[in-house]
Amino acid sequence: MNKNTKTIIAIAAFVIFMIVAAVIYNSLSERYQAKNPLAPSIEETAQVRDREGGNDASPDTEPGEETRIAAPDFTAVDGDGNEVRLHDFKGTPVVLNFWASWCSQCRKELPVLDRLSNEYGEDELIILTVDLADGSRETVEKGRSYVEENGYTFRVLYDTKQEAAYFYGIRYIPSTLFIDRDGYVAAGYEGPLGEEGLRIGISLIVESR
Fold this sequence. Notes:
The protein is built from 7 helices and 7 strands; from the N terminus they run αααβββαβαβαββα. It is of the alpha/beta class. It has one domain: Glutaredoxin. The radius of gyration is 16 Å and the shape is globular.
């Protein structure tokens, strides 16, 4: 079985599981956490933020409706130091990718993300990369220099307070989530996806042309 086939199977399995978990999440939460490394953190942090004062990212469902996992909002800074919220992009599908310049697998994936970002208009899809700038191993200066040196044009945010990493429970980079135009997570994956895997994820949130 080649790498691309494994990636396709992994994403397909994730999507299938998301559908099942949406129906039986409350009764099988432990099983859900074991199978999906990204979405449990999303669900848990959404609930916590809702309890702590209201979270407009928490699922808003009526009785009998399927529960969908809403992507938690976070604030990070752009290359000019301006604060940007994830929910600023609501209304447009988002590929949310976590990376750092020291990560070799990330460096291999960023050119693919950049190429994909140039295939879509900003009203069709946003490629939003989040540099985990912890201030030690990775800094805003290192991340920004790497992006500029390679001429990448996708949007970059710098997670200087580790807020995004915390809310999404990021344990491994690269990690990528595919968020639909309504702000719900359609799929997520820990590890490099490659072009074929990224395109499969994008197909879940972008209408076919």
